[in-house]
Amino acid sequence: MITKKGEETRNQILEASEQLFMEKSVSKVTINDIVQRAGIAKGTFYLYFDSKEALVWHFIDTKLSGLNKYLAKLDVEGYEKEDIERIISYIVFFLKKHNTLLKLMHHVRFFTFIGFHNMESKSVNKWIEWLTVWIEKGRLKGELYIDNSNFMAYFLVITIHEVLERAIIEETPFTIDEASEELKALVVKLLK
To answer: Can you tell me whether residue 78 is helix, strand or coil?
Structure first.
């Protein structure tokens, strides 16, 4: 069990690393940079994280935990038509609340450092799995006319991610709210 002082130290490390990640790419941030910014000894860093990669994964897991919990519930809930808009609304709400996370992950090249394949196998595949189960429930209920639930889940995760990421990092002429409404309409059409 981590003590209150230990939690404060871990948070110092996370805050220092987040600040540094905002300043330069993940691959250029060193453990020495992090401990200097956090004001701790290098050995203290290793009490909390085995490596910089472990720190980066902890950072990602911590930031995405709310989204993961929400999407995991799809596995146990039944399919309802209203869920489509509710799911996209929640994802948009989450991303707006944590928009610096997406900007940070995009601009400092998290995926270059950890490898997109690693991110896919750790998080993206779970999202696809949960959506596949949910879509399959709708298909079996006779409300969705999809031949391949897994393909559609994969397509939805990639599409939603790309559109919303580009809106958040301002690479489109659309705001995230405008993109959200268009996505809802598009996904409803795709699934019907």
So the answer is: coil
